Amino acid sequence: MEVAMKKSVKVILMILLVAATALPFVYGASGGGKDDMLDIMSKLDQIPVVGTKDRFLTILNERAPAAEQGRFYEYKVINNAVMLEDAASVSSGAATEAEAPQDAGRSQSGGGSDDYSTTNIQVAGVDEGDIIKTDGEYIYQVNAYKIVIIKAYPADEMKIVSEIDYNGGDMKNPRLAPAEVYADGNALVVIGNAWDDRERTKAIIYDITDRANVKETREVALEGSYLASRKIGDFVYLVSNKYMYFYYPAAINDDAELREIIPEYKDTASGDGYVDVAFADMRYFPGDDDMNLTFIAGFDMTKPAEPADITSYLGSGRQIYCGADNLYITKPVYSGDANYHFYNYDATEIYRFAIGSGKVTFERKGAVKGQPLNQFSMDEYDGHFRIATTEFSNLDGEMTNNLYILSADDLRRVGRIEDMARGEKIYSVRFMGDKGYIVTYRTVDPLFAMDLSDPADPKVLGELKIPGFSQYLHPYDENHIIGFGKDTEVIRENWNGNISERAIETGMKMALFDVSDPTSPRELFSTKVGDRGTFSEVLDNHRALLFSKEKDIIAFPVTIYKQDGDGFDYGRASFQGAIVYGLDLDKGFALKGKISHTDSPPADYWYYDYGSEVSRILYIGNVLYTSSANMVKASDMDSLREINAVQMTGLKS
């Protein structure tokens, strides 16, 4: 079976190493700045094969810094040479992103409503895993070491029909710590991390034709921790990072120690055991130095007997962006001296993989200055890849921000805007067709509106400065954006005669921006939620937002704090649950009400009831469903009156 698996799974190990002494460490050592250096990317038309164990060890030994031989290599020091114009030359087509997310992963179980919410995603048609999904009849909830399947429609008949338990009564050795799920038709995919002799990312696929009698059909396991996943149609793409903590080749004495380095994977469609990546399948890029490993797997969730397509690259990913035809993985590039004194979060390497029908093929490598904040800092549109970054220097603490437009085909730079909002950093980004919006912050919140219609000549058209900052920007329509963030107040302080200003957060803020005239963006309305200390997962995780323009619903989980003292006091938590708003473009935000899973307000930190903490809101028809570890509650969408609730059993967290 293992032989068959090796034949059916494409595995390419790209060893991304570079000699630490190949180029000077300090900027300016060669007489020029960043844009005067030679490109660190080389041609990729012919990728060398490792071939043998001896060659593998030789490559590692040659590329490792001599001063670090025999020591753990957990970080990298790279040269400061990053050019933006040149990149690899491997042909491929580019994807085009739709302007607004819609209906990704939408499916029905057969007996439910066809009017139900889906996960709030970034790219239309590209679904993202989450801790809860619905198909209009059933709800699939991640609950600690379980998956709970609930018949949710109709609401007055809601009940738990089955559970998938990965704990089995053994808290120390659970089979899986589930993180996210996908549900589509009669297939369910559960993704999470597992630990045995190694850390692994697993995707376990189930046949849920009979929701009361779920049947496991397949397991795909990759080494490393779970980074991200996406689903396009029936195909799931899974990414993991393996952090390899090992001695250099000079300290490897036998095959047992060597085997700790060699990655392994499993796909039960081809065999039951784990398979090592063969040296004959390993390839490497000259010109990089990352000693960590990224696995990418693609598989059809509806065909458990069809082998997965699995690729493996030596080099760790930090952020991912996925369009309809391309997957981009970014990783940070640091610069410093030979003693590992890191001076800058210097640049970002971008790797583009063509995806389709579960297949994953590396195609391009590029680079830009600075680091992206998150997946919304990246976007693919009309044959171009856009990325917003913040540059940060440890030498002087200086920050500046950039926007780059690259050709999606070859990742060569086409246009750029650099040195925006010096001294501030990016807090949120949203691309909407040929427009882009960036929020930076230090003491006020500048919202930059950009015209990206000419990729070779992007322009900042307008800027709005208001107190506070937005951490997540969500399109309401093509002319309006909702910002979720924090309200702030600037205070003056006198320290021994030295007057300084700083901003303190005074509560959560939701704002509506009018960007119909990008030369003069306006804040039409805003509303404050709670006092200092109030927080919501939606500020860091867009999937926590339920938004429906048609149903006039803006809902998200929130913990509201009320102050008892001065402006520096965080006060005490007074509410935890879902908060529900409506929005009228003429009147602004209107609070519809709140839904909680506890009758008493949150206590202090030591006695906080985490099991009753609402984490997600979804709808089926005109019913809102709120989810916590202890309960799923159904409430009327108009009155928020409770219709029904089911209590969870077993482990809560």
Mean pLDDT: 82
Instruction: Count helical runs.
Output: 3
The percent of residues in helical segments reads under 10%
CA(first)-CA(last) distance: 39 Å
Write the topology of this structure.
Layout: H1 2-8, E1 13-15, H2 53-63, E2 132-134, E3 138-143, E4 146-151, E5 159-165, E6 177-184, E7 187-195, E8 199-207, E9 215-223, E10 225-232, E11 235-242, H3 255-259, E12 264-267, E13 275-276, E14 282-283, E15 293-300, E16 309-314, E17 319-322, E18 326-336, E19 342-356, E20 359-369, E21 378-381, E22 384-393, E23 399-407, E24 413-420, E25 425-432, E26 435-441, E27 445-451, E28 459-466, E29 469-477, E30 480-495, E31 498-514, E32 522-529, E33 546-548, E34 553-562, E35 572-584, E36 588-595, E37 616-620, E38 623-627, E39 631-636, E40 642-647
Parallel strand pairs: 1-14, 1-16
Antiparallel strand pairs: 2-3, 3-4, 4-5, 6-7, 7-8, 8-9, 9-12, 10-11, 11-15, 12-13, 15-16, 17-18, 18-19, 19-20, 19-22, 21-22, 22-23, 23-24, 25-26, 26-27, 27-28, 29-30, 30-31, 31-32, 33-34, 34-35, 35-36, 37-38, 38-39, 39-40
